[in-house]
Amino acid sequence: MDATLSGHLQELRRGTVVVASLIVLRTPGYGYSLLETLSRAGFEVEANTLYPLLRRLEAQGLLTSEWNTDEARPRKFYRTTEQGDAIADTLRSEWTRIDSAIGDIAKTTANDKTGSAE
Amino acid sequence: MTSLIDRYVYTALRRIPEQQRGDIDRELRASIEDAVDARVEAGEERETAVEGTLTELGDPDRLADQYSGRSNVLIGPEFYPAWRRLLTLMLAAVLPIVVIIGVVVQLFDDPDIGKVIGGAVTAILNVGIQMAFWTTAVFVVLERTGAGPGRTGLRLDWTLKDLPRYEPSTVPKTEVAAGVVWPILLTAALLWQHFGLNEVPVLNPANWSFWWPYMIVALVIGAGYQIWLFRRRSYDRTVSVVNAVQQLLFAVPLIWLLASDRFFNPEYHHFADLNGGDVKHWFTVGAIIAVALGTLYDIVKVILRGEQSRRGLPSKVPGTGNYNFG
């Protein structure tokens, strides 16, 4: 049962990390900082999926990157592009739409139940 | 001495395209160091912090796959159905044909039962493995090169037309295909044993004046019958009659040639190789029985199908265990 649940949870969460990353990186950040921010915000994301994901988003033109060598440890900073911003907005409104759709459908079903019981 | 982090990074980079390695190397090290620092700040020893961080990052080969966007499957879900269909077709339809050709060639070459069986088994194994390997190899290349079905021009997409018809009266496609291929193979074998071999032809060359050309014409008529039947789409009494005629056109002269000893070349003396018995005689008797039974079976089968579809009796739906009661 646990395996079933975690499988469904994983499927439901797939894609949310992309939205969250694009939103967070409106202010430039590097891999580990983003990982920290996301896990503090309650996103369950592994380092080994997040780091490759950042490079993929960059290749798609949704993020740009720049090496910051000012500090002792050089870090690659990512920032959301305009295109990434637009996509993040679209994805977010889709998320909201799905959320309210699920709320509606749950409400309708509950009403039907009480309706038929009467 | 290379550190644990070095070993991890090198292992991951092994499987990443060269032009990306420098950048990923720097970034991955920075990320690992950041994570280690965070653990050390939280009170861990540096050594355990490194171990914990790398363990959390997991299998470096998988990480490399994720970085290079490579799928870690041999044949993905996009190609799997097409791969399975093609492989089934190769093994179920093409392999038997190849094996039969091999057996026929061996029979003419040296009809030793041990060699025939041995050759057939070897052919099944060799050709089967080759077919499975090359079919799979082609699909692996398609998968790797990222050529989607849409871009390869192969019709891999499923459409409604791919649904089998399952109509009881419908002519089975495989039988039609076999009915067309078989005459071609026989004609080729007939020509080849006479013109292709440098030795004495197995079959009687005297028959080239009439009977062999006649047989080729009968075979062509047989192939034409199959195509006619396929386009007609169903069995009935007309089909039963036409089928019986075309079967007898071929079988009766063949049996007569065999029975009157006009079939084999009198100059061909390689029959007596087996145990000193009269192999030619037994071969002739066997061939007569096989041709007669095969012809009879086919005529009866077609008549039964015709009756079945005429009366609308429930018939077994081909390819499934079901009966069609429609």
UniProtKB/TrEMBL annotation, chain A:
SUPFAM superfamilies: Winged helix' DNA-binding domain. Residues 25-86 form the Transcription regulator PadR N-terminal domain. It comes from the Bacteria. Gene3D superfamilies: Winged helix-like DNA-binding domain superfamily/Winged helix DNA-binding domain. PANTHER family: PADR-FAMILY TRANSCRIPTIONAL REGULATOR (PTHR33169), TRANSCRIPTIONAL REGULATOR RV3488 (PTHR33169:SF14). This is PadR family transcriptional regulator. It comes from Paractinoplanes durhamensis. It holds the Pfam family PadR.
UniProtKB/TrEMBL annotation, chain B:
InterPro entries: Perm_prefix_1. The keyword Transmembrane helix applies. The keyword rRNA-binding does not apply. Keywords: Membrane, Transmembrane, Transmembrane helix. The chain crosses the membrane at residues 86-108, 120-142, 176-195, 210-229, 241-259, 279-300. This is Uncharacterized protein. It comes from Paractinoplanes durhamensis. The lineage of its organism: Bacteria, Bacillati, Actinomycetota, Actinomycetes, Micromonosporales.
